[in-house]
Amino acid sequence: MNLIKLLQERRDLIDKALNRILPKESAKPGKLHKAMRYSVFSGGKRIRPVLVIESCLCCGGAVNDAIDAACAIELVHTFSLIHDDLPGMDDDNYRRGKLACHRKFDEATAILAGDALLTLAFEVLARGRAPGAEIKLIRELAASIGSLGIAGGQYVDIEYTGRKKDAKILNYINEHKTGMLIKASLKMGALASGAASGRVKALETFGRYTGEAFQIVDDILDGGDSVKVFGKKDALNKARLLTSKANAALDIFKDKADELKTISDYLIKRRF
Amino acid sequence: MNLIKLLQERRDLIDKALNRILPKESAKPGKLHKAMRYSVFSGGKRIRPVLVIESCLCCGGAVNDAIDAACAIELVHTFSLIHDDLPGMDDDNYRRGKLACHRKFDEATAILAGDALLTLAFEVLARGRAPGAEIKLIRELAASIGSLGIAGGQYVDIEYTGRKKDAKILNYINEHKTGMLIKASLKMGALASGAASGRVKALETFGRYTGEAFQIVDDILDGGDSVKVFGKKDALNKARLLTSKANAALDIFKDKADELKTISDYLIKRRF
Question: What domains, with CATH codes, occur in chain A?
Fold first, then answer.
């Protein structure tokens, strides 16, 4: 199947599910729900939830097995962007060409919208559509976003604002801020399918390398830290090598992994 | 048993468990873990986790069945205080006579410490010490703290800052900001014990009334909204009536509920 068409189909499905999951603006407090919806539906590419679904399919699961986990990952991604943009954090006024949540609404609303989206992610996973896998999914998500995951990565990133980062620090930040949620996306897709541990492990490995490559390409596109530390050419070569390693980890799935490999190739060729 | 001694014993147990659960300062990023620990160990009375434990015991469970849920509730309580105190929210410099997290450290650290504590609460519940009850516990906690729970209550509270609140708005804020987490404490203790639904329901009812009474007494002690809306005398009478209703809901437990009744009586007599 054509990749762009596949991604579009998945995105529509994910957006419909997110729309069902998020409280309506008619539910009290309406403005808080409006802010949550504003940030969730503000043009995200839905790469992470697509990875959750493809990972589940690659293991022989169905789209429906993965949809809650896919939404949970996107809710967490949105929460982390809202909090990262706050004046006390990175102080960004814009996100994806639109006003950041705290600028469109206000700071208190943005803090609470983030808190509520984070909470909703766990609520969705506990809803009972993946019995048996639920607790494993919740454990994986929590481990990826706490102080030893995303929050830790964001902390060290802010700690080093305006200071020179060496390769070790940069790797720590990239792994925690970006890599762990991408790795979790792959692992959770596999867990939602009920896959055996060898397969879960393979997808985790794919996720680890893909996440690292993804961050490097992001940095190349917006002049970020990887370019400063490694230089543009070496950074791109590194991303290519990581993608080969990622795809090699999926050999055990044979042609079932074709979509995932196409996506990881696409992620280093993208121009946005 | 003497109530003060009982509370002290429970508190010691809870503090030890929290100390085990929280990442050490030696784990990276150390300063983030320091901030999380600073706020968790800053003199909280541990009323909510004590209620979790007593509710579990009242249903015939053991302290060990309830300790993870008790810690999760206290982690969530601490997260909500840290975020409430932020400059973009209530802008409080002090909490329990000590510097608020964002003043002791900085704003970014406080936001991330709160996010990480919230996440840790779910991680603790998913650790697998209450098999069977885990998913129910996670559902209950998530429902109490999202946009239809604590975050919603805090949102409306900020929305009405400096504006006159009528009884309806005040009830909404009190129920969501304070009541729901106290109700969740009682319900989660019962769920952790594996109690039948009638018993869970009774403890939920006790929690709802006790939570309402607790907030009114808080307002009486610090001149809060309940006093402004109802007057001090009527507010105190209301708190007493709510406590009677709370205790009446526990009649089915006979003398097994003595500790909980003593605690609810104590909560309206307290002077701090």
Answer: 3-269 (1.10.600.10)
